[in-house]
Amino acid sequence: MRFPSCLRNQVDRVLADPPFLSDECLTRTAMTVRALLKKSGTKQMVCTGNKMEEMVPKLFPGVRKVEFEPKHKGGLANAFGCYMDWEGKFIR
User: Fold this and answer.
1) Cβ distance 42 to 62 under 8 Å?
2) Of residues 24, 25, 18, 23, the one with CA closest to residue 44
3) Is the pLDDT of residue 17 over 80?
4) Mean of the per-residue pLDDT values for the chain?
5) Which pLDDT score, from 0 to 100, does residue 35 have?
6) How many CB atoms lie within 10 A of CB 68?
7) Which end of the chain is more exposed for a tag (fewer CB within 10 A), N or C?
8) What is the CATH number of the domain that holds 24?
9) Dmax (CA) of the chain
């Protein structure tokens, strides 16, 4: 976890998009998110490959898969999902 220590427990909202679809990468991302977020009143969104679907709720307590499907201009090789711990409306 390399980030300025002044950010520890200072963040209200996080959008996490781990760069690799691996257990280690998702775990390290979750550790960083926990270190950054304030202790209460926060929101988190995680976008990652569907192959990580079982791990996401374990590592990011309170999130659930939502209807929104991340898309990429050039297309994505893997199916992706979005997980949030808050309700949101999405414009299509």
Assistant:
1) no
2) 18
3) yes
4) 91
5) 96
6) 17
7) C
8) 3.30.110
9) 38
